[in-house]
Every structure is written in structure tokens, then in C-alpha cells.
């Protein structure tokens, strides 16, 4: 549908928040806490063709689907991005972006760097946050503690983690080191609070004080 001519585009409606990290850096726990504290946030439950692990629930942690259904969804354009990670397909549903924009809420994506970069290409106002473990040794220890992966999977994940971290550090908007959960969470909250106050995201409609079309204040400050 066309946007009416007098209806200003709302490019910054809603906040698309991408959290990426090597597995074991604690991003899922941070994402869960953020969601519990933010009634206007929705979690983007990704689709995946991998099998559920441990206590993972269909529709909560992921939508677990077979390769054929995944491919059908690609063809129907249902993904805002999708990728192959560790030999399985993963995709983020477009409807979550639409929901967040319609409600001016937060869409939280717990996805990898290639997914984050794809979202940023489509939605340049998306905010990409990369979570780092305190050290490579600690990351390996956390992966082993999960007791869900084989030795070979752990080795593969450590290799992928290193390149993921290099790419995240080079291209993401914010970097948070998760050496202390409470501090890392407070940094994440600060990013969200600051981004919600960004010009363009604040609803100024009721003040009838829209900035001048060039975005500059109408009068220069004195002095
Ligand atoms: P896991 O299988 O350990 O849950 O996830 C493996 C990797 O896939 C993680 O880095 C996770 O963030 C990423 N991932 C999960 N969902 C998506 C998605 O929808 N798109 C992309 N690009 N990556 C995803």
C-alpha cells in the first residue's frame, strides 16, 4: 500500500535490537532479562532446521521445522534474513519487525553476525550489539559447562567464535563485555534507553514541534 503524501515516513518507528555473540557468551540470558523487564519488547523466535537441544521448546526457543518447510518460507519471503550456521538453516521472521514497528516497540533478535549485518542493510536504523566473553578461556569453559555439545562441536564452535568476534567487533554499533552479568545487563539497558531517546524515535507529535526540514534548530544558540 502507498504512503499518503501528507503522512511522514516513520523510518525510526520501533527499535530493532540485534544481539550477537559467540555461543557461550551469555547473550540469551541477557536477552531474556531484557524481555522480562520491557513490556513493549518482543523476542524474534527464529526458525531453524536443527534438532531441539536439552530443554528447548518449540515456539519458545525456536520454531523447529524441516528443510522443506524452511525453503517454502524463503520462497514466500517470510524471512527478513536467513543463514546457514553450523550446517543448519536459521531465519528471522519478517512479521516480528512489522509487529515492533506497528506498536513502536522493541524487536529483539538473538542471531549471528551475518544475520545482524543483513538486518542492518535492510534497516540501517537497527541497533547491533555484540556481547563478548571476558576471555577465550572463559568462553571454552562455559561451552563445556553446558554439557550439550560433543568435543568436536566445541572445537568447531571455538573456531567459529574467534572469526565471529572479529567480525562483530569490526561492524557492530555497541560492544558489551559480559564478565559480570549485572554490569553487562546494565550496559545493555543503557543502550536501549539511549536509543529510545534518539531523535526520530521520540514521538513529538503531541508537541507540534517538528524540527525544521533540514533537521537543524530554527535559531542558532547565542554566544
Ligand atoms: P544455536 O544452534 O547455538 O542456538 O545457534 C547457532 C547460531 O545461530 C547462534 O550464533 C545464533 O545466534 C544463530 N542464530 C539463531 N537464530 C538465527 C537466525 O534467525 N538468523 C541467523 N542469521 N542466525 C541465527
Structure write-up:
This protein is of the alpha/beta class. The protein has one domain: Rossmann fold, CATH 3.40.50.300. Helices cover 39% and strands 18% of the residues. It has helices at residues 27-37, 67-75, 94-103, 113-122, 136-145, 151-171, 181-196; strands spanning 15-20, 41-43, 47-48, 63-64, 79-85, 88-93, 106-110, 127-132, 174-177. Helix 5 packs across helix 6. The N and C termini lie far apart (48 Å). Mean pLDDT is 88; it is low at 1-11. Bound molecules: guanosine-5'-monophosphate (5GP). Guanosine-5'-monophosphate is lined by residues 23, 46, 50, 81, 83, 85-86, 90-92, 110-112, 114-115.
What is the CATH fold-level name?
Rossmann fold
Q: What is the 3D shape?
A: globular
Query: What order do the SSEs take from the amino end to the carboxyl end, as H and E?
Result: EHEEEHEEHEHEHHEH
* Top CATH class: Alpha Beta
List keywords for this structure.
alpha/beta, four-stranded mixed beta sheet, 223 residues, Rossmann fold, disordered N terminus, 9 strands, five-stranded parallel beta sheet, binds guanosine-5'-monophosphate, 18% strand
Summary of the model, kept short:
The chain is an alpha/beta fold. It has one domain (13-202): P-loop containing nucleotide triphosphate hydrolases (Rossmann fold), CATH 3.40.50.300.
Write the layout of secondary structure elements.
Blueprint: E1 15-20, H1 27-37, E2 41-43, E3 47-48, E4 63-64, H2 67-75, E5 79-85, E6 88-93, H3 94-103, E7 106-110, H4 113-122, E8 127-132, H5 136-145, H6 151-171, E9 174-177, H7 181-196
The protein binds guanosine-5'-monophosphate.
Amino acid at each position: 500500500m502507498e504512503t499518503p503524501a501528507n503522512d511522514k515516513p516513520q523510518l525510526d518507528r520501533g527499535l530493532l535490537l540485534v544481539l550477537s555473540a559467540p555461543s557461550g557468551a551469555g547473550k540469551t540470558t541477557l536477552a531474556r532479562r531484557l524481555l522480562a523487564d520491557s513490556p513493549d519488547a518482543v523476542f524474534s523466535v527464529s526458525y531453524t532446521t536443527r534438532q531441539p537441544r536439552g530443554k528447548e521448546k518449540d515456539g519458545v526457543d525456536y520454531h523447529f521445522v524441516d528443510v522443506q518447510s524452511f525453503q517454502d518460507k524463503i520462497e514466500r519471503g517470510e524471512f527478513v534474513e536467513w543463514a546457514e550456521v553450523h550446517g543448519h538453516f536459521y531465519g528471522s521472521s519478517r512479521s516480528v519487525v512489522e509487529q515492533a514497528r506497528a506498536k513502536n516497540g522493541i524487536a529483539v533478535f538473538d542471531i549471528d553476525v551475518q544475520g545482524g549485518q543483513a538486518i542492518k542493510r535492510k534497516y540501517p536504523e537497527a541497533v547491533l550489539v555484540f556481547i563478548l566473553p571476558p576471555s577465550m578461556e572463559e568462553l571454552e569453559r562455559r561451552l563445556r559447562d553446558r554439557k550439550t555439545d560433543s568435543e568436536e562441536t566445541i572445537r568447531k564452535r571455538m573456531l567459529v567464535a574467534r572469526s565471529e568476534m572479529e567480525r562483530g567487533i569490526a561492524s557492530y554499533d555497541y560492544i558489551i563485555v559480559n564478565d559480570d552479568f549485572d554490569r553487562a545487563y546494565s550496559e545493555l539497558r543503557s543502550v536501549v534507553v539511549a536509543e529510545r531517546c534518539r531523535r526520530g524515535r521520540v514521538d513529538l507529535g503531541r508537541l507540534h514541534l517538528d524540527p525544521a526540514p533540514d533537521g537543524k534548530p530554527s535559531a542558532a544558540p547565542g554566544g
